[in-house]
Amino acid sequence: MRSTLFTLFLVSGFLVFANGQEGHGDEHQQDTAHMQDSAHTDDNHSACGCHHDEEEFPEYNPTASAFHHIGDANAFHIVGDIYIPLPCILYAPDHGLTTMLSSKFEAHHHGNGEKAIDRYVLVHGEVKRVADPAFPMGEVEIECISHVMEMHEGKEVEEPIVVYGGTCYHLENRSTLDGGVFGGGITSFYDFSITKNVFTMLLVMLVLFLVFRSVAKAYTARRGMAPKGLQGFLEPIVLFIQDEVAKPFIGAEKYHKYLPFLLSIFFFILSLNLIGQIPFFPGSANVTGNLGVTLVLALFTFLVVNLNGKKNYWKHIFWMPGVPAPIKLILTPVEVLGLFIKPFTLMLRLFANITAGHIVVLSFVGLIFIFGKSGASLGGSLGGALASIPLTMFIMAIELLVAFIQAFVFTLLTASYIGAAIEEEHH
Amino acid sequence: MTSNLIFLAEFTVIRPDPGTVFWTTLIFALFWFLMSRFAFKPIARALKERESDIQNSLDSAKKAREEMTHLQAKNEELLALAQEERAKILHEAKMAKDTIIAEAKTKAKEESHRIVVNAKTEIEHMKMAAIIDLKNQVGTLAVDIAEKILERELKNKAEHEQYVSELVKDMKLQ
Question: How far apart are CA A123 and CA A113, in angstroms?
Fold first, then answer.
C-alpha cells in the first residue's frame, strides 16, 4: 500500500514535470501584433498589420494560461507545434455547413491557424469566425491572428482579431447557451465539431465498452469460478455501487431497473475525471469540468428521476399531504423549484470540483513561469519548480480523491433522487 | 501590458455550448444503451446468479448437516433399541435355558425313578421266576428222589438208607 502510494506520487511528480514542459512557452502573448494604436479607434477596417517583432520573453498571464488549458479545443496539442487534428463540423446560419479537419487551418504557432476557411480561423486551437461579410469565403491565407485593446464596460479588454489584406477583422466565439450571463451567447456560428472533449468522451466510451464487455464475457466463460484479473478488479466497484448505493436508496426489489444507469453514470464520470488528470495525450481534456457536459449528465438524471416518478412523488410535490392548506400553497412552489434545483446542484458540484482542482494545479505550475519571468530567469524557474512540484503533487493527489468522490456523489445523489421518486406511500 | 489584461482569458468552460451538449447527449445515451445491453445487465445477472448459487450451496450444506444430525440421532436410537432387544433376547434365552434345564432335570428324575421302579419290578419278576423255577426243580428233584427211593425200597432197606444219604449228599442246591 505504502509503495503504491509512493509510486503514485512519483508518477504524479513526473506528470507535473510533463505538464510544466508542455506549458512552457505556450503562452498567448508572443505573437501579439501590438495593435494598441489602432485599437483605440473603433474602425475595424482601418489599415492595420502584423508586427513580427515578438518579445523574446513576453509577460506570463496565469489567468489566461489556466483558462486556456481547461477550455475545450478543436485540436489536440501534443508538444511544441505538433497537433493532432480533429474533425470540425461548423454551422453558420448565413452560410451553412462547413466540415473539415482542423489541420486544414495549418496551425503552427500556439494553435493559431495560418489559413481562414469560410471565414473560420483557428485561434489557440479554438475555432472562431469572422462575422464581417467583407471577409472572403473559401480558403485564404491570413496575415496573422492578433488582438486589440478595447474598452468594455469601463474595462480594457483584449479582443482577438484576424489581419487579412492589411485590414483587421473582429472574431466571434462559437455560440453558447448561457444567454450572455457568462460572456457568451448566440453568435454567427455553431460548433458541432469533434472537439477534444468529444474525442475524449468517445475514447472513454470505447475503452469502457471493451473493458466491460470482456468482463461480462468472463462471467459467462468463468461461470461458477472465482473472479480473476480485470473482472476481479472491477467486480468490487460494481458490487459497491449495487450494494451500497442502489440497494439502500432505491430498495432491494426495484434497484435492478436503475442499476445500469447508475453504473453508467458512475463509470462515465469517474473515467472522464481520471483521464482529465493526465496532462498529455490522450488525457488533458477537461470534460467533467465543462458545464455543458455536466448539464447533460444532470439532465439525464432529471429525466430518469421524473419520468419514473410515482403518484406519491408528484403528490408530495404539488399537494403535500398532511399539512394545512395555507402551508401547502407555500410548499408547492418550493417543491417545484426543488425539482430543478436538485439536478442543477448535481451539474454545478461536479463542474466546480473538477474545474477548481485543475485551476489550482495550473496555478501552482504557473508559479514556475511567474518566478522564472516567463523564461528570462532560469534561477527563478528552478526556485518556482522547487516550490511548485510538491504543491502540485499534493493537489493532484487530492484531485485523484476528488475524481472518485465526485463520481460517487453524483451516483449516490442520483440514486437517492430515484429512490424518492419511486417510493410507495407509507404512512 | 496593462494589469487588467484578459486577452483570451475567457472562462469558456462555464458556457455550455450546443455542440458539447449535443455530443454529450448522444455519446452518453449510446454509452448507457451499450453498457446496459452488453455489460452491466449480463454482469448484474451473473452476480445475482452467483449469489443465489452461493446461497443455495450454503442452504444445501446446512440441510445436509441437519440431515446428518438427524441420522445420527436416529442411529443412536436404533442402537439403543438394538441393545435393549439384545438384552431382552439374552434374558429370554436364559429363561428358556433355565426352564429346559429344570424340565430336563425333572424328566431325568422321573425317568430314573421309572427305571428304578422297572428294575425293581423286573428283579421281582426274575426273583419270582427263579423261585418258581427252583420250586419246580425242587419238585422235580423231590419226585426223582422219591422215584429212586421207591425203586430201592424194593431191594434193601439198608441200601435205601445209604442211597438216600448218598442222594442227599449228591443233591446240591443249584
Answer: 7
B60 falls within a domain: yes
Residue B5 domain-assigned?
no
Q: Does B36 touch chain A (CB under 8 A)?
A: yes
* Dihedral (Cα; A130, A135, A141, A145), 10-degree rounding: -40
- Which of A93, A371, A410, A81 minimizes the C-alpha distance to A273? A410
Q: Give me the domain span that covers residue B65.
A: 16-170
Task: Look up the pTM and report it.
Answer: 0.76
If one compares B20 and A25, the residue with the highest pLDDT of the two is: B20
Q: How many helices (H) does chain A have, and how many strands (E)?
A: 11, 12
Provide ipTM, 2 decimals: 0.86
Q: What percent of chain A has pLDDT over 70?
A: 86
Q: Does A271 touch chain B (CB under 8 A)?
A: no
pLDDT of A43 over the 50 cut: no
Can you state the angle between helices A325-371 and A291-307, rounded to 10 degrees? 160
**Domain positions in chain A:** 31-59+73-194, 198-422
The Cα–Cα gap between A96 and B124 comes to 161
113-132 of A, contacting B, C-beta below 8 A: 123-124, 126
Q: Specify the 3-state DSSP secondary structure of A61.
A: coil
Query: Does residue A104 surpass a pLDDT of 70?
Result: yes
pLDDT of residue B4: 35
Number of domains present in the structure of chain B: 1
Q: Check whether the bond before A282 is cis (ω within 30° of 0).
A: yes
Using CB atoms, pick whichever of A59, A289, A291 lies closest to residue B1: A59
Please state, in angstroms and rounded to a whole number, the distance separating the CA atoms of residues A134 and A94.
14
Look up cell 500556439; give the residue. Answer: A110
Residue B30 domain-assigned (yes or no): yes
Inside any domain, residue B103? yes
Please give the distance of CA B111 from its chain centroid, rounded to a whole number: 36
* B3 interfacial to chain A (CB closer than 8 Å): no
**CB contact at 8 A, A197 and A295:** no
Q: Is the sign of the CA dihedral B73, B79, B80, B82 positive or negative?
A: positive
